[in-house]
Design goal:
The protein is α+β, with helices and mostly antiparallel strands and 380 residues long. Helix content is 42%, strand content 23%. The strands form five sheets. A six-stranded mixed beta sheet has the order 4-5-11-8-7-6, sandwiched between helices. Strand 4, helix 2 and strand 5 (90-96) form a beta-alpha-beta unit. The radius of gyration is 28 Å and the shape is globular.
Length: 380
């Protein structure tokens, strides 16, 4: 399970373990998980687990055999989609890379209309209608079948992406000027076209930019190499046109555009669970102090159980109207002290709990308990 592979954290020298996690929409309670080798690609893993995931879901949802899986575009492959098409009553909602569907992302924004989402309603109440997510619906052939396609545009995401892109483009331009000065000075390791192109490639990779945003020309004069560069405005415009756009592909032809967009946006729920597993004080999967597969599986099982309890705590708090996260509730309750008291003539001690603060009393009430005369008692 623990192998070296490409790490999203950039720590490629460390061994890593993969975790597949399926959560329920709304409650965010984990329904299924599997640990897997750290060098396994998402799409290959998904095909390996599809049948197991579907059987697990159907065993939990016996009343209805209709299932909808909201998946990330990293899982998209011809084999995976063909498998889902063959499963009766199983539908999917996934996203598609805008770079591979230029005709869709270039649709005029006049054809887009606002969608009904909680965030859009809040923006409308604040009088910021221009920041609302808008969508355009059509149908296209994907993975051998006609699919319903919804293209969304988020103005706020567009502004943020454009700002970051222009900042990176300026850094790339400054880097190219520095490369040009070194080439003109004839410095060591800067005297051949291959060496310069390699430095340019490394610069683009460090900025997470493609290499085709600038055109590089070389000229040899005697022993000296000269470098000229200019922006490729056509490719830059194409990249900017995709910003803020998202393509949603689904096998649900009968769902409304609002329902499709909402389901796709709800992917954040599983991302929240992963964020809790990586960075939360409680239920954090890392560090893992074991390297044998059996112990790694025990460690991950314990962490998934902790993640489930944290979600249950949050659900209890929400149901009671307590505005508090599970992590904050855990930290608050950690300060509630108790003691053992031995009474004369008694063989066993009695546990007494100190008087809780208003916040602690509120949390205890949310999970069905109260402290009375130093004793924890269930609420009537």
């Amino acid at each position: 399970l623990a192998v070296r592979a490409r790490s999203k954290d950039g720590k490629h020298w460390l061994r890593q373990i993969g975790l597949a996690l399926l959560v329920s929409r709304g409650s965010q309670i984990p329904l299924f998980y599997r640990e897997y080798e750290g060098n396994c690609h998402d799409s290959k893993l998904f095909s390996r687990l599809l049948q197991e995931i579907i059987e697990a879901l159907r065993s939990l949802n016996r009343d209805s055999q209709d299932l909808t899986m909201v998946i990330d575009k990293g899982m998209n492959s011809q084999a995976n989609m063909e498998f889902l098409d063959q499963e009766e009553g199983v539908h999917f909602i996934t996203t598609y890379t805008p770079a591979f569907a230029e005709s869709l992302v270039n649709k005029d924004l006049d054809a887009f209309t606002p969608v009904d989402t909680p965030k859009n309603r809040k923006l409308a109440q604040k009088g910021r209608e221009e920041d609302r997510i808008v969508a355009w619906r059509t149908s296209e052939e994907f993975w051998g079948q006609q699919r319903t396609v919804v293209v969304t545009y988020n103005p706020r995401a567009d502004a943020k992406q454009r700002y970051n892109f222009e900042k990176k483009l300026n850094r790339l331009h400054d880097g190219l000027k520095e490369i040009r000065s070194k080439v003109r000075a004839g410095k060591k390791h800067w005297t051949s076209k291959q060496q310069v192109l390699q430095r340019y490639k490394e610069l683009c990779e460090s900025l997470y930019l493609p290499q085709d945003l600038y055109n590089l020309d070389f000229e040899k004069t005697g022993d000296r190499l000269k470098l000229y560069f200019r922006k490729d405005h056509y490719r830059i415009r194409k990249r900017i046109a995709r910003m803020g756009k998202n393509i949603i592909v689904t096998s649900h032809h009968d769902w409304s555009t609002d329902a499709i967009v909402k389901a796709s946006l709800d992917r954040y729920q599983v991302e929240d669970a992963f964020r809790q597993s990586k960075a939360g004080e409680f239920g954090n999967f890392r560090p893992i102090w074991h390297w044998t597969d059996s112990k790694i599986r025990c460690h991950i099982l314990s962490c998934v159980i902790a993640l489930t309890y944290l979600r249950l705590i949050r659900l209890w708090l929400d149901r009671a109207g307590v505005d508090c996260t599970a992590d904050k509730a855990m930290r608050t309750m950690r300060d509630l002290s108790s003691c053992l008291c031995w009474h004369s003539g008694k063989k066993k001690p009695t546990r007494l709990i100190e008087e809780p603060t208003p916040e602690q009393a509120e949390i205890l009430s949310a999970i069905g308990y109260k402290v009375e005369n130093g004793v924890l008692q269930p609420l009537e």
